[in-house]
Inverse folding.
């Protein structure tokens, strides 16, 4: 199993989620994060003080998936979240050792 | 000729007893001189009018700003607050510069008098601590500057109401330009048509010294037509011409803070007593009528909106209650000084279902993106109130009726609900047409020149950071 | 017979100089006719009473709603706001329908007069712009509608106070049902018992035309008994009968926004001037006394609460200061027009330690879940104030004493602190019993029929989303 | 000797027409007795003064607290709210104890009269519902307690203004100690010097019964010197002596909630009508002048700040508009009752660029950490206003001029802009020096004894949790 | 070492933390997330607009643990967070390559 | 490639980010979390109720990096975020299976 971590632009969330649903992804976990990268942030000015932060609001998706499904998930995210503008984000994958569903105690792919 | 005039009194006999406490001994003076008028000022009235002005300012900032702001997404919060704050400020300066004069003086030529005032008081010429303004009672005057600033607060809030229709997708500077032009071409003329007149001590001699709708006898106690219908239709036109928000109907756009919306609605409620009861211009028994009517209509409309939601969704919502309260306030505005409290309460019960129908069924059916329901609440509620005023003002239903100011002292005018309904309908129609058409032209011209709408990217990222360089929250 | 009456004046001699400025020349008229009363209305008083009404509304919405709302968890924020908003609206309509009549008219039969009014003014029959209400000064009247709406705001806020005791765990509709029944069975009778009387120009001839506690001579300037003790005990009963919140004592339930609580406390403070100083019904020197006392007691109680916290925890908290301010406001309410400012300040210093003891030690010991400390602050603070009034009102301590209205014009009544203390204690006891018992019955019946409490799952997930279909924040 | 006095009137001839409506028949009485003064009280004035007092309280809590609080980081939000709330409460108690007496009575010895009052009214001795205070009109009085509480609200807000300069890095208890000492050693003397005088009916006989700056004829209608310059310089001194925040200039410190700042600015605006127009002490035409000037200067300053930002950064900000509004309010304060509305508007347009220059260029150049720009907005805006008052008050520019109260009834005094400018400059200088030096000594002594600054760790973690044991938000 | 990622219902947090403490777990890191899965969300209605989101508030625990302790941690979480209702959450495990304590620079199991 | 998860004190964020920039780290993702560990929390008191939570605000950094750079990143974080006080935080490392840049679809180290 794989654990996929995707950083995307917040307004793409709904679209990506829908696309993944169609793919048969049953669940995912989403968090609000700030991203730092090539994309430049806006300048904020408060009276005399100017702040340019490169920390931009992003959304992080975490998806546990079977080894089979993982590549297709990555592909779908890459295509759906893409706006061809800098800052579109990344998809990271790590190996998942185990997965357990709390409600039933099941583990392995059936737990996803 | 003049059949009836805007009035805040029952029959004059009784009203006189009220208004003239301090002058009970003195006989009424027709067309008093400026010096005489000064002796007809009561400090209780002055205090009331100034307090009312502060209350109406509180309706705009922070009231309306929060009511609206809470409903948009976080990324556009400051844009709404800023738009309201700046419109209020710009409209305030404009009022002193030309607005008051265009609304409350006689026409540049007599032929213009029914439509718009002249420039004789532009830059506040001739207005100072020693000039007085008329009220709706014979021989009761208030300091003109108090009247000036009370009316000013109305001129400040009205254009700010409009922005709710196209919130989250408008450029700032073009909006300010719109505000200036709309005030001059729409607000001042309509205010003049509805509210300008010579005053109760002078109308007998100069019965034509009045705005068009005032002359016709349209009843609008505190500005249902001038403020709410006027702004509501301008907003609707703007919303249609500017188009829907990016993602409208697809993306979720829940209010970012209903807490703010509730604070805003509450302050609107509190401040509206200045708006409605202040519109009597003096602190008399009729002022208390307007105050009570405002209170009851609001309670009733908040409840009836919640009840509909209970019936339709099984969940009465805070936003619903707040929307109902505002709908009730809007509806009772033109009727506030005329209705019996019990009919005001009924008006409140009735207006919410009507507005609810518009902001849910109608809006969903026609799929226009009136972001904050300015049309559904202010325009529809305003029309409901304007028409209902013809009914609830009827003495037969316990209303205050209308006064015939062509007599001195003024007397009660004969009252016919159906005739009044026609007059009200005419006033509503003229306002809808005037404001609707002129607004459409203004939006069109500004769009073609300055552009009304930010780029899609800016809209997505939010107006706050792009137009104002700030974020509302950094928790 | 009548020994002393609620009064807002020193000795009548001096007071008359104040009240009757405008009538200095005229002799006092006993039992003036309705027409004469109209000439005894001063527009300064009318303005003041209307402003006070707006201020008291601001205490409820947004004041109380925010003070309470900030203290609950995010998931229940809207439920608190909505409960306050709707209770206020429903209680407002009910007041116009039957409440005013049940509180402020003579009994249906003479035997009922001490306990509750009749229905002669139900649906606001006979009240209009030309009727007047008495004040506490001879020959000083106010428009009855102004009095009506001022009292209305009290009837609106009182049931809203109750909800703090069982916040975060009550179903909405049953609560509204409770509000209606409690208003009718508890609030109107108690208000009648404490506040109903014939007025200073009439009591000489009809000395029995008064509510029970009023007749006994209980002193309650602005509603310590009627509002705070009354609501406080009802809340306590509700909290005990409904039971503790799920997770109470185990889970952390920190306030979700002390910022909101601070705004609420501040607006309560500002609005309370309408409540206390407005209760004098006219804008006289005594009004200024009530105003100053309110200010000083609040400052003192905020400081003394912070000082205890400094001593006990070494950290004076914003919530402590806000709680102290509210405790001070509650305590000074019955005494506001009677105390000397310096004793009002002492009262403020004293009330906070008492309330602090209740909301910390007592509450923790008996482990009841009075969510927002309605009992510990409003009931305990109210009782403290009611009893202290007997002391601070004493002319020997610089207080205003009591008036004997069975004389015309009224005169100062002899004053005994101990005798007055007994009377105050009786009034407190009757209120505690009446409100406590009737509330218990109401909660019981509603619980058995509609059910008071949502399911555990709903409580966990929050009332906002489950009862109202909304979330307070979507940042 | 006395050349001119603080005054809220045009020439006395006209003003009398206004003020004395109710006494039109009666001849003016020089040096009326206490009993006569009571008959010279108008309830409209009393109502207005009490409402104004409530409005000024609303400026502090929640107004100023939110305006400041929104600008700090979340972790220090409650510390700001708490500081304002407690300073207001402590200063309130102190006012009743000694402050009023030190500000508004004759000196302990005649030689002290120009500098500070005595203790004859300490603990409110001799002040009750039957004593009256003078206004600026002959034979117009208000209840002394109303005057007492109105002035009290000024004494409450002024020390609270100071804290903005060193927000986010001050210990709570030492700050309260500073507040007490500063009130006694700075505020009461300065208030005495600027505002104490014998009143219009008495100055002819006792022309030396006045504070120093009042005697010199300094014009300060509503407290530009006493409140804003006074607090502004004290804040600046504190900010320099306490030092910069940890991380200043390196870490981002964006405002945690501009929404709160906007609410605060709006409530300051609304409340400021009580501050400025209330300072006329009566509800006359001049009150309306002060009201209108306040409105227009604020609108103009909000707009002009936004315009500069548009020019400099291309992004007009909400914080800019709010800052501009406050700068306008500050600047118009001393001029509010004197200026013509059009010159008040110009003053508003001018003050924002000046303050903008200070809070951006000057502050960045000298790198002092005036956290919330108390110096840049209040002190600089206050000085601008104080000096501009000399210009805009000139009758030649439509201003109200000054009155010569050494005549009875008072008459208009000859007016010279340049002479007045010198007087204003003197008043400004004395205030800057007195407040600056005494504040420096106080900060120094408190720092050496109690310590002013928390540890770096506490500062990093935030004052809320460390000093008050709470968090502002638990969403 | 293992890195355990558990998604649970927010109101279970205190209970789970206590249970893990008893087990000897010295530390963990908690974040607020939104979960998307089988569990259905509530409908929100704002005037005319209806939103049904399946994004539900969840809490994410991240716990680095020794290989020995990991299975017991998983078990305890599974049992404590269980309400037998849909949406109780998941437990994911990945392999941890290294762990470092910033304060001391220690690494490996002693750093946990 | 490695996926580095660092928990640090919030006020150290700017410093750490700068240090990493100097090292050539092109991007990272930051989230606000609550940490539970040896460090004791502050006591909050609300009227009569006392809460001592050991949940303290922390910042979590997630950085995908090449195997070469990873050790130096860890070192830099450890040194910069260190205040020698309890609660300074941890650095965890897991193996990264793949990384994809959404904008371009590139994957592997060039995607970082
Ligand atoms: N090495 C990295 N480790 C973790 N997250 C990263 C890394 N690089 C980029 N990100 C995340 O991806 C987002 C987009 O990266 P950025 O460099 O701005 O644009 P792009 O992905 O188009 O090259 C960043 O905001 C950040 O959240
Ligand atoms: N494949 C997945 N990857 C990541 N998180 C998941 C996944 N499936 C479920 N979740 C998380 O677990 C939570 C519970 O899942 P859900 O399907 O609703 O119920 P259950 O776990 O009882 O089957 C979700 O809200 C989501 O946060
Ligand atoms: N086993 C763990 N798994 C995940 N995060 C941990 C673990 N132990 C500690 N942490 C995180 O590291 C932070 C600091 O740990 P703590 O024990 O307080 O201090 P120190 O790191 O100095 O020993 C905690 O607040 C928590 O966020």
């Amino acid at each position: 199993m794989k654990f996929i971590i995707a950083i995307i632009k917040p307004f793409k969330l709904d679209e990506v989620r829908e696309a993944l649903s169609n793919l048969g992804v049953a669940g995912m976990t989403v968090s609000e994060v700030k991203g730092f990268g090539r994309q430049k942030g806006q300048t904020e000015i408060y009276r005399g003080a100017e702040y340019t932060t490169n920390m931009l609001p992003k959304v992080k998706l975490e998806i546990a998936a079977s080894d089979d499904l993982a590549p297709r998930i990555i592909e779908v995210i890459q295509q759906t979240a893409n706006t061809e503008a800098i800052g579109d984000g990344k998809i990271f994958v790590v190996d998942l050792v185990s997965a357990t569903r709390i409600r039933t105690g099941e583990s392995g792919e059936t737990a996803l | 000729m003049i059949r009836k005039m805007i009035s805040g009194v029952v029959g004059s006999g009784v009203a006189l007893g009220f208004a003239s406490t301090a002058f009970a001994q003195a006989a009424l003076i027709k067309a008093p001189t400026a010096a005489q008028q000064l002796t007809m000022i009561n400090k209780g009235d002055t205090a009331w009018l100034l307090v009312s002005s502060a209350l109406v300012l509180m309706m705009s900032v922070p009231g309306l700003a929060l009511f609206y702001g809470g409903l948009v997404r976080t990324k556009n919060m400051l844009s709404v607050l800023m738009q309201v704050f700046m419109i209020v400020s710009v409209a305030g300066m404009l009022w002193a510069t030309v607005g008051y004069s265009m609304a409350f003086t006689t026409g540049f030529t007599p032929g213009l008098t029914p439509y718009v005032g002249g420039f004789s008081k532009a830059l506040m010429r001739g207005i100072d601590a020693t000039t007085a303004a008329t009220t709706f009672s014979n021989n009761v005057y208030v300091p003109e500057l108090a009247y000036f600033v009370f009316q000013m607060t109305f001129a400040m809030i009205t254009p700010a109401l409009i922005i709710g229709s196209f919130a989250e997708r408008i450029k700032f500077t073009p909006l300010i330009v719109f505000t200036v032009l709309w005030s001059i071409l729409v607000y001042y003329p309509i205010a003049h048509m509805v509210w300008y007149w010579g005053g109760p001590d002078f109308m007998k001699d100069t019965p034509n010294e009045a705005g068009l709708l005032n002359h016709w006898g349209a009843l609008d106690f505190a500005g249902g037509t001038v403020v709410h219908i006027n702004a509501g239709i301008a907003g609707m036109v703007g919303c249609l011409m500017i188009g829907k928000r990016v993602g409208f109907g697809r993306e979720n756009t829940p209010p970012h803070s209903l807490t703010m919306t509730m604070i805003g609605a509450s302050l609107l409620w509190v401040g509206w007593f200045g708006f409605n009861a202040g519109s009597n211009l003096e602190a008399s028994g009729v002022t208390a009528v307007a105050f009570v009517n405002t209170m009851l209509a609001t309670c009733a409309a908040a409840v009836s909106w919640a009840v509909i939601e209970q019936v339709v969704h099984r969940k009465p919502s805070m936003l619903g209650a707040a929307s109902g309260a505002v709908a009730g306030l809007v509806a009772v505005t033109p009727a506030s000084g005329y209705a019996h409290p019990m009919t005001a309460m009924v008006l409140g019960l009735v207006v919410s279902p009507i507005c609810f129908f518009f902001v849910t069924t109608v809006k969903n059916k026609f799929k226009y993106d009136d972001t904050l329901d300015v049309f559904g609440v202010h325009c529809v509620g305003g029309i409901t109130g304007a028409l209902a005023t013809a009914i609830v003002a009827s003495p037969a239903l316990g209303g205050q009726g209308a006064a015939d100011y062509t007599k001195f002292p003024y007397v009660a005018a004969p009252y016919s609900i159906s005739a009044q309904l026609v007059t009200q309908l005419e006033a509503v129609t003229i306002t809808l047409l005037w404001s609707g058409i002129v607004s459409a032209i203004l939006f069109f011209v500004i769009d073609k020149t300055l552009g009304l709408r930010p780029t899609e990217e800016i809209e997505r990222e939010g107006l706050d950071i792009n137009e104002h360089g700030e974020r509302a929250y950094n928790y």
Q: What stands out?
A: Residues 281 and 449 of chain C are 42 Å apart (CA to CA). Chain C touches chain B through 62 residues (CB under 8 Å). Residues A 26-29, 62-64, 101, 103, 112; E 7, 35-39, 56, 58, 86-90 surround adenosine-5'-diphosphate (ligand 2) (CB under 6 Å).
